[in-house]
């Protein structure tokens, strides 16, 4: 832990002993928050991930949601998933010293030695084409990883930070994460997505390798060729280049 790390200026913090989910709490509180605010819980009883999948979050793991009131158009606001991923990567490296152990999996996971360590979930609220709030939910397996018995076929198996012998307190993780996110947020709002995209690609898992992307309707297999200026996954397939906005990714 960097003893010099301080809570980022301008960011609020709400800490809860137990909650159904920090994302749900963010939805309930978003309209009352004057500025960017982290909601961090020691325990979640009804957490979920993408597409409503259950997210196991026992005590000792990290569960937090950052609530923002963004001013950009929705298509730019959603790119903060990459901002959050970079902040998570930096946090894991800062607290373990193991930069080589972590990679980023499109669209929203952090991997540790190829296993799923952390997930990111975005939810927004607004009307008439503009957004009133954005919630960035983050779950990290600091102490325990979920049981693999119910793991979806071909999905990346979950792991915990204990895999590299790191014992990290959730409170310390939250402090380091908040500081890292604030640094990357300044990069994003000042210089746009281009430097975020470049930094993300430098840490991307399976870049240049064959992967499979499954959307709601289709499945594409091809070479992972990067992400474009809109954050879409670029796949070079036998039928041509595909730009995919949303999908579950599976490795070969």
Short structural description:
The protein has 252 residues and is an alpha+beta fold.
Description:
It is a single chain. The chain is built from five helices and twelve strands. It has 252 residues and is an alpha+beta fold. It has two domains: 12-201, Bira Bifunctional Protein, Domain 2 (BirA Bifunctional Protein, domain 2); 210-251, SH3 type barrels, CATH 2.30.30.100. The chain has a seven-stranded mixed β-sheet with strand order 1-2-3-7-6-5-4, with helices on both faces. The model has no long low-confidence stretch (mean pLDDT 92). Helix 3 (80-96) packs across helix 4, helix 3 (80-96) crosses helix 5 and helix 4 (170-191) packs across helix 5.
| Largest sheet descriptor | 7 strands, mixed
The CATH first-level class of the largest domain comes to Alpha Beta
> Spatial order of the strands in the main sheet?
1-2-3-7-6-5-4
Total count of domains: 2
Please tell me what the overall shape is.
Answer: globular
Task: Give the amount of beta strand, in percent.
Answer: 25-35%
**Structural class of the helices, strands and pairings?**
alpha+beta
Order of helices and strands: EHEEHHEEEEHHEEEEE
How far apart are the termini? 36 Å
Number of helices: 5
How many β strands by DSSP?
12
Task: Output the radius of gyration.
Answer: 17 Å
Average pLDDT: 92
The portion of residues assigned to helices is 10-25%
- Under the CATH scheme, the architecture of the largest domain is 2-Layer Sandwich
CATH names the topology of the largest domain as BirA Bifunctional Protein, domain 2
The CATH homologous superfamily of the largest domain corresponds to Bira Bifunctional Protein, Domain 2
Low-confidence stretches: none
């Amino acid at each position: 832990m960097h003893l010099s790390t301080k809570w980022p200026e301008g960011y609020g913090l709400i800490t809860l002993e137990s909650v159904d989910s920090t994302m749900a709490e963010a939805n309930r509180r978003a309209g009352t928050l004057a500025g960017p605010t982290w909601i961090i819980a020691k325990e979640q009883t009804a957490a979920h991930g993408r597409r409503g999948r259950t997210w196991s979050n026992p005590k000792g793991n990290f569960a937090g949601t950052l609530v923002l009131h963004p001013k950009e158009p929705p298509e730019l606001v959603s790119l903060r998933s990459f901002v959050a991923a970079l902040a998570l990567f930096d946090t894991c490296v800062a607290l373990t010293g193991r930069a080589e152990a972590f990679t980023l999996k499109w669209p929203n996971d952090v991997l540790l030695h190829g296993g799923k360590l952390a997930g990111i979930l975005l939810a927004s609220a607004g009307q008439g084409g503009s957004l009133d709030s954005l919630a960035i939910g983050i779950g990290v397996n600091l102490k325990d990883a979920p049981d693999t018995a119910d793991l979806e076929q071909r999905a990346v198996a979950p792991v915990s930070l204990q895999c590299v012998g790191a014992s990290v307190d959730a409170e310390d993780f939250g402090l380091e994460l908040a500081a890292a996110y604030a640094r990357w947020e300044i990069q994003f709002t000042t210089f746009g997505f281009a430097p975020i995209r470049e930094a993300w690609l430098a840490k991307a898992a399976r870049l240049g390798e064959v992967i499979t992307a499954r959307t709601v309707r289709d499945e594409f297999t091809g070479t992972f060729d990067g992400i474009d200026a809109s954050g879409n996954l670029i796949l070079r397939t036998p039928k041509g280049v595909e730009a995919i906005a949303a999908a579950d990714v599976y490795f070969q």
